[in-house]
Amino acid sequence: MPKPSRRRPVEHRREESPAPAIPRGHVAEPLRMAVFFTLFFVYLWLWVQPCLIYSCGTITNFPVFYRGWAFFTESAPRPGGLVAYVSALLSQSFELSGVGAVVITAQAWALSLCTGCFLRRVGLPGSRLLRFVPALLVLAADARYSYHFPLFMGALTSIALACLYAMLTPARATKRVLWDLAVYLALSLVLYVIAGAALLPFAAMCIAYELRHRRWWQIGLYALIAAVLPYLLGVLVFRISLPNAYTELLPVSWRVLGWPARERMVATVYAVYLFPILAALVRSVPVRAYLPIAHREQATQDRREDNALRRHYILWALGSLVLLVAGGVVAFFSLDRQEQAMLQVHHYACRRMWPEVLDAARRCPDSRHTMNAVNRALYHTGRLSRDMFLYPQHPDYLLVTGEDQVLRYWHAFDTLTDLGLLNLAEKNLTECLETFGEQPMILERLARVNLAKGRTDAAGIWLGALHKTLSFTRHDPDRDPAPAAPAPHLTRDSTAQFYSKEAMLAALVESEGKNRMAFEYLMTWYMLTGQLGKLVSQVGRLVEFGYTEIPLLWQEAILIYSYGTRKPVDLHGLTIHPEMQRRIEQFSGVVNRYGPNRDAAAAELARDYRGSYFFYYFSTILAARR
Fold first, then answer.
1. Residue 1 contacts by C-beta under 8 Å, 6 or more apart in sequence?
2. pLDDT digit string (tens) for 555-568?
3. Contact 123, 293 (CB under 8 A)
4. Given CA atoms 110, 114, 119, 120 in this order, what sign does their dihedral have?
């Protein structure tokens, strides 16, 4: 009788990764990814519109990119510089929404692949579905019009190398500690050089991955390397500051914290980093016996193959439905429609797309930057003196001069250029340059201003910088003058002189040449501030500025002045339409009928007179005087 062996039986451990829900090589999983990311792309392209992010209305950290070796050598040779350089290059595609949507979709797709790979390596159940979580986080961040593309690129690099580490150091019966350590050190060096402080989340992922084996001294050594390497390489070798050495390309960087626009939705970057770390930590806890999906008994293999495959397909269909519903919920609730409308106004105003400006303005009517863009669009479409009161109005927002130091939605300064206030426009655009960086649209405007002022040498500097950018839709002022503003009429304005908007506009009207825009803005200012006597005094100059009849809103203002003062107005050969006479009589009848009950009168008048100067004067000017 053979003697029983005293050797302990070898425990055959199962693979860490669970069996796939669908057999390998099947088209179901690629089909799910294809459908999801196709919808992802369409949503970004048609609804989010990355070109709105590119317009830099509120985003102050959108990167500048120049062609040429000099910019590369300045940007790339530092910790995190290569990822930042590639991110800046790819971000220029946002100028065209379709191309930008492709780039963002590719980033989200790569994040999902790398996250799924890492989750499978740590053996987390449901990894084929959970891998879409980072893509949903990217979608949420972009739908809120925040710019975190470089941070997500850093996260992608970190997770990709963590996945590579898990592939190169699989679980073995024999320990190869030196090999694991060499792989970790090599990947850490590469990662820190190309992605900066994204090394720290990478180290956390590797440590969480190794917790399964309880190799405490190895885990401690990994943590020590991660703590020391940024100082050795970043501070001592690359000579960068200590804060940058430990925070570059992380959401805790000083480049992000303390800037409200940059902090918006930064939690999504934290979540992308923390998700694989928490997944590895969950798998390191010995709770497999309590998870019914964590392992399968051998008896499962005895089931009929067709029943098992049918169950797999049902689970795949349910998982796909959950994924699409989750994506729809994120897309619907994350989209910031108010910010979208504001950025659309800015985007279209910068490109002089006036019908689109007026359409987008209806979705965000109360913003001062919107009011400024609306009045400019109405003027350039010949509707300012006819339709301006169809939109909310405020006298302070007719002309934004920059004295409030608010530089967001800097399309407002294009109004200064159109009017001919070139020095004031140049001052504000230069400050925008310091805030938003050397963006192509700002460089283009500075070049135009200097060309209009005859300063060709200064304009050449801005044009030289503009030609090095990758802007796809720029209009070179020296070659394509078509999109430029009308020839300015005042090229030596003094920014110190013009603190009064009325004095500024009056000086433009009195300057040489026929500055019709300044004249119309001055008349608009008189209406918004209720200075009808001054408006009436300018009626004699209508013919001088090319008017053949009195605009409708100005007729209403003249009638209000005439009725209020009981004085006739010299129209210098022009006439008031008889219909206007009838309307003011009807308007006065409604006001007199309600007497002191002005709210009731306003409610009735709004039905028939909203959009008229009669109603604006009654509900705004007179209400403010009482």
1. none
2. 999 999 998 888 88
3. no
4. positive
207: its two tokens: 């440590």
CB contact at 8 A, 159 and 276: yes
**Residue 193 buriedness (CB in 10 A; 0-12 / 13-18 / 19+):** buried
Q: From CA 413, how far away is CA 441, in angstroms rounded? A: 12
Amino acid in the structure at residue 101: A
Confidence class for position 172, pLDDT limits 50, 70, 90: low
- 390 in Cβ contact with 382 (< 8 Å): no
Query: Cα(179)–Cα(169) distance, rounded to whole angstroms?
Result: 8
- Indicate whether 295 pLDDT > 80: no
Separation between Cα atoms, residue 42 and residue 38, nearest integer Å: 6
Least confident of 107-116, 190-199, 360-369, 456-465: 360-369
* Amino acid (one-letter) located at 317: A
Spell out the residues 6+ positions from residue 592 whose beta carbon is closer than 8 angstroms to its own.
none
Residue 404's pLDDT is: 62
Q: For residues 475 and 460, what is the distance between their CA atoms, to the nearest angstrom? A: 15
Contact yes or no for 257/88 (Cβ under 8 A): no
Report how far residue 141's alpha carbon sits from residue 335's, in angstroms, rounded to the nearest whole number.
9
C-beta of residue 156 within 8 angstroms of C-beta of residue 114:
yes
- Structure tokens belonging to residue 360: 């987008």
Q: Please give the full DSSP string across 60-104, using - where no structure is assigned.
A: S-PPP---SHHHHHHHSSSTTHHHHHHHHHHHGGGGSHHHHHHHH
Residue 557: both structure tokens together: 């203002």
pTM score: 0.86
Angle (nearest 5°) at CA 370 between 440 and 531: 125
CA–CA dist 467, 312 (Å, integer): 56
Match 């980033």 to its residue by tokens: 107
What's the token pair of residue 375? 């009045």
Listed in order, strand segments (DSSP E) in 7-81 are none
Give the mean pLDDT of the chain: 85
Q: How far apart are CA 112 and CA 135, in angstroms?
A: 6
Confidence of residue 12 (pLDDT cuts 50, 70, 90): very low
- Token pair belonging to 246: 């430990």
Q: Is 479 exposed, middle or buried (0-12, 13-18, 19+ CB in 10 A)?
A: exposed
Q: Where are the beta strands (DSSP E) in 105-246?
A: none
Q: Say whether 467 sits in a helix, a strand or coil.
A: helix
